[in-house]
Amino acid sequence: MKELYIFFSQRLQSYQDLGLLIFRLGIGGMFMWHGFPKIFGGIEKWTALGKTMETFGIYFMPAFWGFMSGFAEFFGGLFVALGLFYRLACFLLVFNLGVAFVSQMVGDKGLLKASQSLEDGFSFLAALFVGPGKYSLDEYAGLNKSGKTGSRLFNR
Fold this sequence. Notes:
Shape: globular
Structural class: mainly alpha
Helix content: over 70%
Oligomer: single chain
Number of strands: 0
Largest sheet: none
Number of domains: 1
């Protein structure tokens, strides 16, 4: 049994970058889908969403905070899917999901409702450390890992 497990592990290891691409496209696409009505909802939607920051004692500029949440979800999802500025996008999403989790827990919605924010936040936190893989625009631009691979697009 151990040999069979090792055999499959070794075979799948060679497809690690494909797995990262599938992860990026799936979760990035879903965050674009969730973020679309938020980012394009207008000032009323942003204000309502931004009132979440009151949980943290921040009462000013709710429309700005709501816009930033929608921006993090939609454009963060886009950047994750493309693998462009991947770690920055993951960081923004971890922060956004942390705010969502805390506000849901403080708002007595319970762990059943808040668990999705927590789970997605941990996914993006892990992705922050793992990186986008070689099938990404960061790799093409030389922004992934050591920066030695890819084009010289940003090395000027």
